[in-house]
């Protein structure tokens, strides 16, 4: 019997190769996956049955953070990871108030994805609560 909880992920990523590679990885794990390439498409797919939301920061019609805002407005109990190729400091400046559960850098490391899905990746709250060099070492900086 499988003890891990069921993952119903929504991936919002405009790069087809990145989106499909991540989706295929999650499907091989047995997870249910929906994909979108824009904020608008993601908004229409963001329903109460989504358990994990994986967002690219920069999308053709805006920022993936708008979907994080939408999830919070609707009170959805979804775990959110922001995926970006930008420097962590830049992402943190834009996202700190929205508090996603994790940041995943491009190219996405599947070990980081699994750690996030299983709840073992440090959260943004953990990151902000740690001081000085310990903070940098936890994020591999």
Q: Report the sheet with the most strands, covering strand number, pairing sense and barrel closure.
A: 5 strands, parallel
Secondary-structure element string = EHEHEEEHEHEHHH
Approximate strand percentage: 15-25%
User: Based on CA inertia axes, which overall geometry fits?
Assistant: globular
DSSP strand count: 7
Straight-line N-to-C gap: 39 Å
CATH fold group: Rossmann fold
Name of the CATH architecture: 3-Layer(aba) Sandwich
Mean pLDDT score: 81
Short synopsis of the structure:
The chain has helices at 16-28, 39-45, 65-73, 88-95, 110-117, 124-129, 132-138, and strands at residues 8-12, 32-36, 52-56, 58-59, 62-63, 79-84, 102-105.
Descriptive keywords:
single chain, two-stranded antiparallel sheet, Rossmann fold, alpha/beta
List the helices and strands and how they pair.
Elements: E1 8-12, H1 16-28, E2 32-36, H2 39-45, E3 52-56, E4 58-59, E5 62-63, H3 65-73, E6 79-84, H4 88-95, E7 102-105, H5 110-117, H6 124-129, H7 132-138
Parallel strand pairs: 1-2, 1-3, 3-6, 6-7
Antiparallel strand pairs: 4-5
